[in-house]
Design goal:
Blueprint: H1 8-13, H2 16-36, H3 44-51, H4 56-66, H5 69-78, H6 83-86, H7 95-131, E1 136-141, E2 144-150, H8 151-176, E3 178-179, H9 193-203, E4 206-207, H10 218-245, E5 252-253, H11 273-287, H12 289-294, H13 307-334, E6 336-337, H14 339-347, H15 355-364, H16 369-385, H17 391-396, H18 399-404, H19 407-412, H20 423-430
Parallel strand pairs: 3-4
Antiparallel strand pairs: 1-2, 5-6
Helix pairs in contact: 2-3, 2-7, 2-9, 4-5, 7-8, 7-13, 8-10, 10-11, 10-13, 11-13, 15-16
């Protein structure tokens, strides 16, 4: 991932140096296990732990000759220890024993970072949900004004979805946090299972119950797919903010820093560029899913068609997800919410958004539903075409309506309060309470 969309924590985690250091950690643990079994001389693993080092530049120097990164790595490490001790580096192992184990460890660590990110975002969204719980806003279906609703419910919905994203991330982390030291075809021909067990315990990640030369790539595909779904949530949020920042709507406004400029040609512009960036990069994140799924199919016990793909998609997908979540957190925390515009938009159709309540009131008082629908629709469409006489006024002058609805009853049907009457109950049902013990709430 390019630096523009990468935070330092992920750049460091996925650097060549960190990868080689993680390989070295696996190698030293394997040597310790061999020594405990009495298969290599006493003191070797201790000297390797103290003396063995790896330098990414040196590995690259060897790789230009070998065209094999693991052999280049082994040679670079061997240069830092005695010739006798160097004999026991990579003892009994195949390349992917080290590579897949280290990759699983690094990916699990990256998911830990993203889980922390999502927890922070979810808390910011929770705060907005509580602040706006009883703020009325027009609901829109098909992009058209529907009925009034609570602006807080939008945030509550995102809070719940982010909770499901958290659960998926935890499951994906558990799935990927699996290692293998089982040899060239996975049958422990050159090293006993005890070596794998020891390294697994030291790394605190589970050993795969069965592997070939590689860990099976459904694990990695689950990680990438989970990150893509998380990106979909962020894209959904960003799109809602973008739509709500349109000049004609003006209900939400992403943060605009002091000194920021929105357009090279038009000084008045304040564009939702951060949300647009999230929507755009979420497409990139989704694009990693197909390669991850295709990596699941390898020839026999292993080929390396997956390897080059994973060098790109795993660092990039986790780095991008980390960046997008932290960006969205900043947007949510700094978002400007224009409740006055929400009220204006709610009232702009002159009460047409209350047509559903009028329909039900007429039916409840004896009018057939089809006839009531025709009456309400006729006056609603007339008011929309000619707002000089409001929807409420047209209904009030209709003889059929006047016969069954008093002016007082009709007026009460144009009140926004009933549309918010169950909001508290919804918040309680989903666990979105203001008390600390209910701070995170259940996943619904």
């Amino acid at each position: 991932m390019i630096d523009r969309y990468a935070r330092d924590v992920m750049k460091t985690l996925w650097s060549d140096q960190t990868r080689y250091e993680r390989w070295l950690a696996v190698e030293i643990l394997a040597a310790q296990a061999w020594q405990q079994l009495g298969k290599i001389p006493p003191g070797v693993s201790e000297r390797l732990r103290r003396q063995a080092r790896v330098d990414a530049a040196k590995v690259e120097e060897y790789e230009r000759v070998y065209h094999h990164d693991m052999l280049a790595f082994v040679s670079a490490v061997s240069d830092t220890v005695s010739r006798e001790d160097a004999k026991y580096i990579h003892f009994g192992l195949t390349s992917t024993d080290v590579v897949d184990t280290a990759l699983a460890s690094l990916t699990a660590e990256a998911l830990d970072v993203i889980l922390d990110d999502v927890a922070q975002l979810r808390e910011a969204v929770r705060t907005r949900a509580l602040e706006n719980k009883m703020v009325p806003v027009i609901g829109r279906t098909h992009g058209i004004h529907a009925e009034p609703t609570s602006h807080g419910l939008k945030w509550a919905l995102w809070w719940l979805e982010l909770g499901r994203d958290e659960e998926r991330l935890r499951r994906a982390r558990q799935t990927i946090a699996v290692m293998k030291l089982s040899g060239a075809v996975g049958n422990y021909a050159q090293l006993p299972p005890a070596i794998e067990t020891y390294v697994s315990q030291q790394l605190r990640i589970e050993a795969a119950p069965l592997s070939t030369q590689v860990l099976q790539r459904d694990r990695h595909a689950e990680v990438v797919t989970t990150l893509a779904i998380l990106g979909g949530t962020l894209d959904k949020m960003a799109t809602e903010i973008r739509l709500s920042q349109r000049t004609e709507v003006g209900e939400l406004e992403e943060p605009f820093a002091h000194g920021q400029r929105g357009s090279s040609a038009m000084p008045h512009k304040k564009n939702p560029i951060k949300c647009e960036q999230i929507s755009g990069l979420a497409r990139v994140l989704r694009g990693y899913v197909v390669p991850a799924l295709e990596d699941m199919t390898l020839w026999y016990e292993r080929d390396i068609s997956h390897s080059s793909v994973e060098r790109v998609i795993l660092p990039d997908a986790t780095t991008l997800a980390d960046y997008l979540v932290t960006q969205m957190t900043a947007i949510v925390q700094g978002l400007v919410i224009h409740t006055d515009r929400m009220r204006h938009n709610l009232e702009m159709t002159g009460g047409l958004v209350f047509s559903g309540r009028v329909l039900l009131a007429l039916v409840d008082r004896g009018m057939t539903r089809n006839h009531a629908y025709d009456v309400v629709q006729r006056h609603a469409l007339a008011a929309a075409n000619d707002p000089s006489l409001s929807f409420r006024e047209r209904l009030g002058s209709d003889p059929e309506v006047k016969q069954i609805l008093t002016d007082e009853t009709l007026q009460s049907l144009f009140d926004v309060a009933p549309y918010l009457q169950e909001v508290d109950a919804i918040y309680r049902r989903i666990g979105l309470a203001e008390s600390e013990e209910n701070k995170r709430g259940p996943i619904v």
